[in-house]
Amino acid sequence: MHDPYEITTLNPHPGPGHGPRHDAVILPADLPPGVQVVTLPGGIRTLAYTQPTTPAAHPAPPVRLIPTWARTTALLTPTIGGGIAAAGAGLSYAAPGLIAMTHALWATAALIAAGTIAVPVIRGTVRRRAAPPAHVTQHVTATGMFGRANGTINHH
After folding, report:
1. Which of 31, 62, 79, 133 gets the highest tally of CB atoms within 10 A of its CB?
2. How big is the CA angle at 38 (ends 34 and 39), to the nearest 5 degrees?
3. Taking the model in full, what pTM does it have?
């Protein structure tokens, strides 16, 4: 294959006994894409990016946002379904009481209907059995505008 490239790091202000490092080595196969060994104008060989790291082959597809009405509907659907389920469960627990109330309401309606029919019938029967009403006549006479009034009452 290729010869390994030696990586050197120079300290700009080396102290006594500190020279360039020659212990780090990288193989050409391990170089990331776009990195090559280049020679600088001063004669120094170094690693450098010579081309873009990721070529722009395909433009990114446009982002399609979810419409607001669809998002709202999707969020409300479980809530509405849960409400309907809770109402169904409540009605199933309340069913015996509701049935008793409907029976009571029908009994009340029947009582009102019977009363509407029975009261006139009973009144008519009582009137026929009672004595005829008494005839009362009254004669009142008065003299003058502020005079005393006199009268007679006759029962027939």
Report:
1. 31
2. 170
3. 0.29
